[in-house]
Design a protein that fits this description.
- The structure holds 2 protein chains of 2 kinds.
- Chain A is of the alpha/beta class.
- In chain A, about 50% of the residues lie in helices and about 15% in strands.
- Chain A folds into 3 domains: about 10-80 and about 125-205, P-loop containing nucleotide triphosphate hydrolases (Rossmann fold); about 85-120; about 210-295.
- Chain A has 15 helices and 9 strands.
- Chain A has a 5-stranded parallel beta sheet with strand order 2-5-8-1-9, sandwiched between helices. A two-stranded antiparallel sheet of chain A has the order 3-4.
- In chain A, helix 1 packs across helix 2, helix 10 crosses helix 11 and helix 10 (about 210-220) packs across helix 12 (about 250-260).
- Chain A is elongated, with a radius of gyration of 25 Å.
- The termini of chain A are far apart.
- In chain B, helix 2 runs antiparallel to helix 3, helix 6 (about 125-140) packs antiparallel against helix 7 and helix 12 (about 255-280) packs across helix 14.
- In chain B, strands 3-2-1-4-5-6 form a 6-stranded mixed beta sheet, sandwiched between helices.
- The two termini of chain B are about 50 Å apart.
- Chain B has helices at about 15-30, 40-50, 55-65, 75-85, 100-110, 125-140, 140-155, 165-175, 180-195, 200-235, 235-240, 255-280, 290-300, 330-350, 365-370, 375-385, 395-405, 435-440, 465, 480-490, and strands at about 320-325, 350-355, 360-365, 415-420, 445-450, 470-475.
- Chain B is built from 20 helices and 6 strands.
- Chain B is α/β, with parallel strands linked by helices.
- Classes of the chains: A alpha/beta, B alpha/beta.
- The interface between A and B is large, with 51 and 41 residues.
Chain lengths: ~300, ~500
């Protein structure tokens, strides 16, 4: 597979450096899987808690490779006509009407019309088909794939394994170039075995403290190193609590930006408590974290 | 198995040794319960052609991405990987080589050093402790690895061929290092550095930072012990001794604290599914009675001819659930899990009522409702709920009778009753008639039993006396079985 198309990545390290250039800080695992996906021509299933940069990964890879990003947002009730293709039946009707009007003049047979109205110009391409038919390199992002029903998942299988779409009236459309496919999932339900088997699996967890600090430093311009350091350490401390929803990376960034805007140079317990609502989204979580941050005023026994 | 001995970096392509250890690796993964299909195995082989084999991390992630498709299996994968490939790579040699850099560091740190042997091995215990302290303070990973190695050599007292598990050696090593004392020493140093100006928040953050480093050290020691065990006994034997059940196979009854924590994360999606299953009612299928109004309205478009009869569709009703759980000592671990499950369920359904019993029974719905914090709720239930009637040995008969007396009238045709317990009744009267009555009124009655089916009806277990009145009794020892129960609902 990799022999046919010119490879875009040399090694996992180049992927990592490339992603860093578009300010996405990948760890070894992420870079390695992206590299393999490109080499093997396999889709990547990205799983992990919300707000850890799953969607951003696809966007950044698109930016890095200079490809167009085609996005399919999944939701309950998504069907073929929204994901794959649809016949533009209004246009088809018009075509038939037009035929009737000029009936006397033209002597077109019904067969001709039928062939005509099921041709490409009456086809509305939806994201999946669009990605397959694209001439230029594309990155296909199938976002939150766990939201569709198990039955709808089957729609994806043909594309993911063979990069083709079968349209009964037209035949099979085969991809001219293999797109990089990213599927993201928040793991609200178990995906089917068939889908998983076709994909490389990548779990993106909360980053470790060094990487998160780097992320904060890259993504929040103007922040001082010491503040960034404090921010990520407090966030780690909060993540250790038992919460309904732990703060995500994007929330860490929001928090860091807020602190910067407020002109806070060094976070103390009070400042942290006052701005907790940016980090946490449930009142019960906020209460718990506030209590915990202030409870540390009782210094542990020596 | 050609795994013994530290092979140098493997040649590219498919050397016989690599293929052999890979097939052993895959077999072990499958034995551990991770489903690796044939295509996934082939994918892994294909992936290995593209990555530099001397890059250990890339090698690991290539295998993981192609073979492990469930994050809860990651830990099991990591262990097996460590066992099978721990001897690969230069910095992982057990003795000699690769330690020069560390050697220099040690000499740097301690000045001139009298002592025989190479690396960190020749140190006195005091020197080792000092080194450990400094390495932890600096967060020096290479140093920590060397110390872990030295500590295992010195303290673990590993003897070749001795069939002792890794935990024993780990315990011996850690006891000698006395990490708690080191932590306090580090905290003191941190305080002194700022001359006591450490705010409470800073102090706490520092402590967490140090604890994280200690965890890293602990993992290094564990890995070191594992490496030596593998070198001694071979990968297969070690992998076998390290085999742990996957989260979905963990037995509720014997789950450790950590395992329960892992279970809690896994249970949320399952209860959501359970909620959906219980709420789903024949939407399709049988039509309701004729909807006269709608039929007339639609007849207007046919010029008044009721060509298209409209029907009322049965509305999916809100499910009502009553969970009745045994929290006695015999099912203590299961009960803790049960309560977590009840809590998770009640966050999904608006109408969940929960009851707990030992020999008396009490409603605990409000305990869950009043707080968002599960551990607080469980604590209140354990301390406040009035579940002991006589002696605190489970008495299903009395508990059910009391349930029927006090809440029986609330059971109606929309109610699903979930009973959780092992039905070990201590030879009290069964009072199975209660369940018969409940089953008559309720929509469904299900019994979930945390005991293996082969134990049912042995000793004082009378589960089948109750089960005859239920819509089904299910063995529910682990997540997999719970999932199966949820699957077959609805």
């Amino acid at each position: 597979m990799s022999d046919a198309a010119p490879s875009r990545f040399e090694s996992p390290t180049t992927v990592r450096e490339g992603l860093r250039r578009v300010s996405y800080l990948a760890d070894e695992g992420i870079a390695g899987v992206v590299y393999l996906a490109e080499r093997l021509g396999k889709p990547v299933l990205v799983e992990g808690p919300a707000g850890t940069g799953k969607t951003q990964l696809a966007k950044s890879v698109a930016e890095l490779t200079g490809s167009r990003l085609i996005r399919l947002q999944c939701y309950e009730g998504l069907d073929e006509s929204k994901a794959l293709y649809e016949w533009n039946y209004k246009k088809q009707l018009l075509r038939i009407q037009a035929q009737r009007v000029g009936e006397a003049a033209s002597a077109e047979k019904w067969e001709d019309i039928e062939e005509d109205i099921f041709s490409e110009q009456f086809l509305l391409t939806r994201p999946l088909l669009e990605a397959i038919r694209a001439e230029e390199p594309v990155v296909l992002l199938i976002d939150e794939v766990d939201r569709v029903e198990v039955e709808t998942e089957a729609l994806l299988l043909e594309i993911l394994s063979d990069y083709q779409v079968s349209i009964p009236e037209l035949g099979t459309v085969v991809a001219t170039q293999i797109p990089l496919v990213f599927l993201t999932s928040n793991n609200t339900r178990e995906l089917s075995e068939a889908l998983k088997r076709r994909c490389l699996f990548l779990h993106i967890d909360y980053p470790d403290i060094e990487r998160e600090r780097e992320i904060v430093l890259t993504r929040v311009p103007g922040i001082s190193e010491s503040l960034a350091d404090q921010v990520v350490r407090i966030v780690r401390s909060i993540r250790n609590l038992e919460l309904k929803k732990a703060p995500s990376v994007s929330e860490t960034l929001d928090w860091a930006r807020t602190l910067l805007l407020l002109g806070i140079q060094s976070v103390d317990a009070q400042a942290a408590t006052e701005t907790l609502h940016i980090l946490l989204k449930y009142q019960s979580d906020i209460d718990k974290a506030a209590k915990d941050l202030n409870a540390s005023t009782v210094s542990p026994p020596r | 198995m050609t795994i013994d001995g530290a092979a140098p970096s493997l040649p590219a392509g498919s050397s016989g040794g690599l293929l052999e250890s890979l097939s052993g690796f895959v077999t072990e993964l499958r034995t551990a319960g991770i489903p690796v299909s044939l295509t996934e195995n082939l994918d892994a082989m294909e992936a290995l052609r593209h990555i530099p084999l001397e890059d250990r991390d890339a090698f690991k992630y290539a295998l993981a991405a192609t073979m492990v498709k469930n994050n809860s299996h990651w830990k099991a994968f990591e262990t097996v990987f460590e066992v099978y490939f721990s001897l690969r790579g230069r910095e992982y040699h057990i003795t000699d080589g690769g330690e020069d850099a560390v050697d220099e560091l040690i000499t740097d740190l301690l000045g001139s050093r009298e002592g025989e042997g190479s690396g960190a091995e020749g140190l006195t215990p005091e020197q080792l402790a000092e080194l450990l302290y400094r390495a932890l303070m600096d967060g020096n990973d290479a140093m920590l690895r060397a110390i872990a190695r030295a500590a295992v050599t010195r303290y673990a007292g590993m003897e070749p061929g001795r069939p002792v598990g890794g935990t024993y050696y780990l315990y011996r090593t850690l006891r000698q290092l006395d990490l708690d004392a080191v932590l306090e020493k580090m905290m003191d140093a941190a305080r002194q550095e700022t001359r006591g100006e450490l705010t409470e928040l800073e102090e706490r953050l520092a402590r967490e930072e140090y604890e994280a480093r200690m965890d890293a050290l602990r993992r290094e020691i564990e890995a070191e012990i594992r490496r030596r065990l593998v070198a001694d006994r071979g990968a297969e034997a070690v992998a076998k001794s390290l085999r742990k059940p996957l989260p979905e196979d963990i037995d509720f009854m014997h789950a450790s604290r950590e395992e329960l924590l892992a279970l809690r994360k896994a249970i949320a999606p399952l209860t959501r599914k359970l909620a959906v299953r219980l709420a789903r009612k024949r939407r399709h299928g049988r039509k309701g009675p004729l909807d006269f109004r709608s039929t007339v309205r639609h007849s207007l478009s046919y010029g008044g001819v009721p060509a298209e009869p409209k029907f009322r569709y049965p509305r999916p009703s809100k499910p009502e659930i009553m969970v009745v759980a045994d929290i006695s000592g015999s099912v203590a671990a299961f009960a803790r899990f049960t309560l977590q499950m009840v809590y998770a369920i009640s966050s999904q359904f608006s109408r969940v009522r929960s009851f707990v019993f030992i020999d008396g029974i009490d409603e605990v719905t409000d305990y869950f409702r009043a707080t968002e914090d599960i551990s607080a709720a469980i604590h209140r239930i354990n301390t406040e709920a009035d579940v002991i009637w006589v002696d605190g040995h489970s008495d299903y008969g009395h508990a059910f009778e009391a349930f029927w007396e006090r809440w029986g009238k609330d059971v109606n045709s929309k109610t699903t009753v979930l009973l959780l317990g092992d039905a070990r009744n201590n030879y009290h009267a069964a009072q199975a008639w209660v369940l018969a009555e409940v089953a008559k009124k309720a929509r469904h009655v299900y019994w979930l039993n945390p005991e293996p089916r082969s134990y049912w009806d042995t000793g004082d277990s009378i589960v089948s006396q109750y089960a005859t009145h239920c819509d089904g009794a299910y063995e529910c020892r682990n997540l997999k079985q719970l999932e199966r129960f949820v699957e077959q609902l609805g």
